[in-house]
Design goal:
Elements lengths: L3 H17 L3 H12 L6 H8 L8 H13 L3 E5 L7 E5 L6 E5 L5 E4 L2 H14 L9 E4 L2 H10 L1
Parallel strand pairs: 3-5
Antiparallel strand pairs: 1-2, 3-4
Helix pairs in contact: 2-3, 2-4, 3-4
Length: 152
């Protein structure tokens, strides 16, 4: 029979190791994310990371993304209501939001103090202590709106 306390200690040590160690693969994946100015999904990260480490596989990238997110080094975002595609960004980026054009698919980043004000207002009024807010903005960008107006 297995000693449960020893088993639990083993799992705790493994979890501690998994979260705190910066392995070469994790470092490569983090570097790819931090050096990108665009929005990267797991497959794009994998393709770019393979330029630095040919042995890297997609499953390792997915596992590493979970670990890096848990370490607070990256943020996972979605650009649409249905959360079809996960995007990863460096957590060092200032707080910002994304607008996705439903016509051309372009994703634009923007910053606004209004969300910060809203969060502060909700915390004061409702007693909440928020650690994160996630908003997706969708619609038609100015270029596509202009094209639609011209074709009418």
């Amino acid at each position: 029979m297995t000693d449960k306390s020893a088993l639990n200690e083993g799992f705790e040590a493994m979890a501690h190791d998994m979260v705190l160690r910066m392995t070469p693969q994790r470092a490569v994946i983090l570097k790819v994310i931090e050096e990108s100015s665009g929005h990267l999904d797991a497959e794009t990260i994998w393709k770019r990371a393979k330029e630095h480490d040919q042995k890297l596989n997609l499953a390792t990238v997915y596992r590493t993304l979970v670990v890096l997110k848990g370490m607070g080094l990256i943020d996972q975002r979605y650009f649409a209501r249905k959360h079809k595609r996960e995007i990863y960004e460096s957590a060092r980026k200032p707080e910002h939001y994304h607008f996705t054009c439903n016509a051309c698919g372009e994703v634009s980043e923007f910053q606004t103090g209004h969300i910060t004000e809203l969060r502060a207002e909700l915390e004061t009024k409702l007693g909440w202590k928020m650690s994160h807010s996630c908003l997706c903005f969708e619609g038609v960008c100015a270029k596509c709106a202009e094209r639609c107006a011209e074709s009418d």
